[in-house]
Every structure is written in structure tokens, then in C-alpha cells.
Amino acid sequence: MIRRALLLCFLAALISGGLLAVLAGRSNAGPTRTVHPARAARVDHPARVHALPSIRIAAVGDMAMVANSDSGASYFAWVARYLRGNVVFGNLEGTLTDRGSSKCGSGSSSCFAFRAPPSYGSLLKQAGFTILNTANNHAYDFGSIGQADTLSTLDRLGLRHTGRPGEIALFRARGVRIAFVGFAPYPWAQSLTNIPAAKALVRRAAAQADLVLVTMHAGAEGSSANHVRAGTEFFLGENRGDSEAFTHAVVDAGADLVVGSGPHVLRGMEWYHGRLIAYSMGNFVGCHTLSTSGDLALSGILHLTLHGDGSWGSGDLVPIHLVGCGVPERDPAEAAHGFVRDLSRGDFGRRGVRISRTGVLLPAA
């Protein structure tokens, strides 16, 4: 009799706990919402995790601006309406300065140094950007003076920035504490190649924020560099990092999203522990600066909604192509959808992000 009573109690517990949880999960559309294991210890109060509002994010790739005939008016004219969100970011591939000496010296056909007048910073602000990554190979094109002018211009405009060694950009959006960290394989940037140091910095960011966003400037360049390769990538003899090892390590350390730039071509997207990794968003502005031939003209704007605890909400890819001198425009052919879909499936298999015909990012099956 006692054994039967105990068995009945055990079955009742299973039904009220496990079965109801399963039923509740099935009634919720979309992926399971979980707390990142790396951040469980830093939540102020368990109830806070589910009370945090969602954050809308827009992300783009490389922007190499220089002075042009229309004072930059065409740079974002056709895409500003898509650059909307609580956080809007891209990679500022160059400087905002009228001073400093070019790294190219007297000039070389194989050396490129990018700068736009500081007044062009307002174009970024007006377009909708809220934070810029400065961890890249062109951030120091005009030395320490050029870098200082760039950062002071962004500060004056109220545009946040990240990417220098040890730098964590901390801010709030809709009451959610957000940390943003940028990485690149250069001495003036937070190191991409020192993965233990990268993990330590992301852990420090995770200890101070609800949502941790990471951007990286990594990988080889050009139309032949659209695949994510295993191991360290090199370009012109330069160590450009191990993209897959780096991204997995920073997600393990607490990153909720990783968005890449640098290859100047779109790359695939991967799900890793429920977090999105977009390995390269390609070129976004390259008017007389970046090659836009063939696949290098394909680009996109990543639209995401993440819950305040970092878990997945929704996302889509706005297809963009570069036209004219190299400015972004929505692509009526929507070529980026199929391009990234194929790369994601080919490079990552079941971990690859599925993309619908309309550009919706679908959780892992």
C-alpha cells in the first residue's frame, strides 16, 4: 500500500512538472528561451531575466568613406530607412580626420589609406547608426592623430564606439544593460588572435551587462574568401585569426551575438548554443574605396530582435547591393538571401542558419 502511494505521488509530480512544462513549451512559438550558461551567475535576480524587454538590432559590414563630389549625400540615401533599431552598428573601415600622415607614405598602388573629413561623421548619425566598430586594419591609416580625431568626432556626435585594447562600450537601451566589444588582429585593437584574452574580456563585459554584443574584423579578403575555413586564415601574409575558434570561444564566455566584417564579401551564418554568428556582412559603403565587382557587390542589413537576456527573438536579412561608385541600395533581385543560405548550409550543415525566400532567419531545426 505504501509503495503504491509513493508511486502515485511520483507519477503526479511527473505530470504536474515535466508534462505541463512540455505542453507549455509546445504552446510557445519559436525557439526555447534560455539563460546563457555563462551569465547565469551574474543575474541580479532570477525574475529579472524574464522581465527584460526585447532589443531591436540592425547591423551592417564594412564602410570605407572618403570625400566625394556630393559630400557623402549618396552614401546612405537609399538605405537609411532600414537602419533603425535600439542598437544600429557597422564597421567604420577608415578614419574621420583632416590631419596625420598616411601609412602609405608617398603612395603605392597596393597600399590603401582611407579618410573622410570629420564632417562626414554626421552622415553616420543622420543615417541612424548608434555605435561603430573601430577594430580594423584601417583605423590607424593616419596614425594616432587620425585615430584620435575619429574618436573625438564620434564622441562629439554622441556615437558610441568600441574596438581599442580593453575597451568595452557600456550603455542602456529600453532599460537593458548592453555591452559591446570589438576585436581585430592589430596592435591598436583588442586582440582577435589572443583567444584566452578575448574570453576574459567578454566575461568581464558579461559581468556588467544583460546583453553582450561582439563584433570582429577577421578572415581573408576577396571573392574567393566567402567560405569560413577551419583554422587560422591569412591574407597577404597577415594573420587574420581563426574565425570559428574565436566566435565559439566568445559565445562560450557570454556573447549573445557575433557579427563579422573584413572579408569584404558575405559569409554564412551559424547557430552556436542558441546564439547567432554572422561571419561577415560584406561591403556596405565603398565609394571609390572598395572593390564592388561580382559577389563583392552583395551585402545586407541584419535585423534582429533579441530578448533582454540574450535569447533569440527573431531576425531577417535585408538584401543589399552596391551600385554606382559603391553605395548601398536595396537589391530587387534579393541575391543575398540565396547566397548566404547556400554558404550557411554548405559551411555549417545542421548548424547553418536557414533563410526563407523572404529573408527571415529561422532557428536551427
Describe this structure in words.
With 365 residues, the protein is an alpha/beta fold. It is built from seven helices and 20 strands. The protein is globular. The N and C termini lie far apart (46 Å).
Distance between the termini: 46 Å
Low-confidence stretches: 5-33, 41-47
> What is the molecular shape?
globular
Portion in helices: 10-25%
Number of strands: 20
Taking all Cα atoms into account, the compactness measure Rg is 22 Å
Q: What is the chains' assembly state? A: single chain
- Reading the helices and strands in chain order gives HHEEEEHEHEEEHEEEHEEEEEEEHEE
What structural class do you assign from the helix and strand content?
alpha/beta
Helical region count? 7
Quote the beta fraction.
25-35%
Most strands sheet: 8 strands, mixed
Q: What is shown here, in short?
A:
The chain has helices at 2-26, 46-51, 121-127, 143-156, 195-206, 243-253, 335-348, and strands at 55-63, 87-92, 95-96, 115-116, 131-133, 160-162, 169-173, 176-183, 211-217, 234-235, 238-239, 257-261, 269-272, 275-278, 283-285, 298-306, 312-323, 327-330, 354-355, 361-362. The protein has 365 residues and is α/β, with parallel strands linked by helices. Helices cover 24% and strands 26% of the residues.
